[in-house]
């Protein structure tokens, strides 16, 4: 560009915009659709039977960079249950004067109780109206849901809810009742676990021996005599009683647990 046009160089953007069609949105008469993952106002979700997903852990409040969330947890009583498990969110408030709609609270929620909707019309001329309470944030009851408090309908314990409840697979009759130090728990059947895609698979390791999984919970050695497991195939130099490979001597270049002979 010639040097004499330098003083008017900055007006180039202005002149280009003067001849373009103005993009006017007739809001609020015409509202533009938002993206599917738009970060709008928050919502506290429910389980399919109506119980609240929020367990009052306060992780969302800790994760909020603007300190806009306030949570108070309370214990579920035997005849007054609002969520599966021991606790629920008795008080839940979001201050939209501070909230920056970043979504970090959603990422921190362990039960997917908190999500963000596509609703962005949360402006107000009153400061008190911008502090939303639990009653405003809680998702409405859908068909088939029951207003809390009420007993758990999708299983005997919170394990049924977290593994199977989201898909409506668990029922009060499903699984096998099991007494644990923490109380009575329901262990889902193999078919239910497969249906939920949560069936656990063992992972092989150097501790895998011909006698089974050494140190596995519930594994007991045979009655009578000293029990010394045999090392697994491919592992040499195992320590007696442990079934694990011997640690290499200083200066030994063999990879640990490789089974290579010196």
Write the layout of secondary structure elements.
Blueprint: H1 12-18, E1 42-44, H2 59-63, E2 69-75, E3 87-95, H3 104-108, E4 114-116, E5 131-132, H4 134-137, H5 158-163, E6 176-180, E7 183-187, H6 190-196, E8 208-209, E9 212-213
Antiparallel strand pairs: 1-4, 2-3, 3-5, 6-7, 8-9
Question: What would your notes on this structure say?
Answer:
The protein has 262 residues and is α+β, with helices and mostly antiparallel strands. Helices cover 13% and strands 15% of the residues. It has helices spanning 12-18, 59-63, 104-108, 134-137, 158-163, 190-196, and strands at residues 42-44, 69-75, 87-95, 114-116, 131-132, 176-180, 183-187, 208-209, 212-213. Strand 8 and strand 9 (212-213) form a beta hairpin. It starts with 11 loop residues before the first helix and ends in a 49-residue tail after the last strand.
Q: What descriptive keywords fit this protein?
A:
13% helix; 262 residues; alpha+beta; 6 helices; elongated; two-stranded antiparallel sheet
Sum this structure up briefly.
By secondary structure, this protein is α+β, with helices and mostly antiparallel strands.
Give the number of DSSP strands. 9
Biggest β-sheet strands, sense, barrel:
3 strands, antiparallel
Helix content: 10-25%
Q: State the secondary-structure class.
A: alpha+beta
Q: How are the strands of the biggest sheet laid out side by side?
A: 2-3-5
Q: What value does the Rg take, in angstroms? A: 30 Å
**Tally of helical runs:** 6
- Measured by DSSP, the beta-strand proportion falls in 5-15%
Name the assembly state: single chain
Outline the low-pLDDT stretches.
171-186, 198-219, 231-245
Structural shape: elongated
The separation of the N and C termini measures 75 Å
Compute the average pLDDT: 75
The arrangement of helices and strands along the chain is HEHEEHEEHHEEHEE
């Amino acid at each position: 560009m010639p040097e004499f046009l330098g003083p008017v160089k900055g007006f180039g953007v202005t002149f280009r915009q003067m001849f373009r069609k103005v993009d006017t949105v007739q809001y609020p008469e015409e509202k533009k659709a938002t993206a599917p993952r738009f970060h709008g106002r928050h919502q506290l979700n429910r389980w399919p039977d109506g119980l609240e997903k929020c367990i009052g852990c306060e992780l969302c409040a800790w994760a909020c960079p603007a300190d806009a969330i306030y949570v108070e947890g309370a214990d579920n009583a035997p005849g007054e249950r609002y969520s599966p498990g021991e606790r629920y969110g008795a008080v839940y408030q979001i201050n939209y004067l501070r909230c920056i709609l970043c979504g970090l609270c959603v990422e921190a929620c362990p039960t997917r109780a908190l999500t963000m909707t596509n609703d962005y019309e949360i402006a107000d001329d009153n400061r008190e109206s911008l502090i939303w309470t639990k009653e405003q944030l809680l998702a409405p009851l859908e068909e088939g849901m029951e207003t809390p408090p009420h007993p758990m309908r999708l299983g005997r314990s919170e394990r049924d809810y977290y593994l199977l409840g989201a898909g409506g697979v668990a029922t009060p009759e499903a699984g096998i009742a099991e007494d644990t130090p923490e109380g009575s728990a329901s262990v889902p059947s193999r078919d239910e676990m497969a249906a939920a895609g949560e069936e656990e698979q063992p992972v092989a390791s150097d501790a895998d021996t011909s006698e089974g999984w050494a140190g596995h919970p519930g594994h007991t050695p045979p009655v009578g005599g000293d029990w010394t497991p045999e090392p697994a195939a491919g592992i040499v130099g195992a320590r007696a009683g442990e079934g694990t490979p011997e640690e290499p001597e200083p200066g030994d270049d063999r990879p640990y647990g490789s089974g290579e002979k010196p």
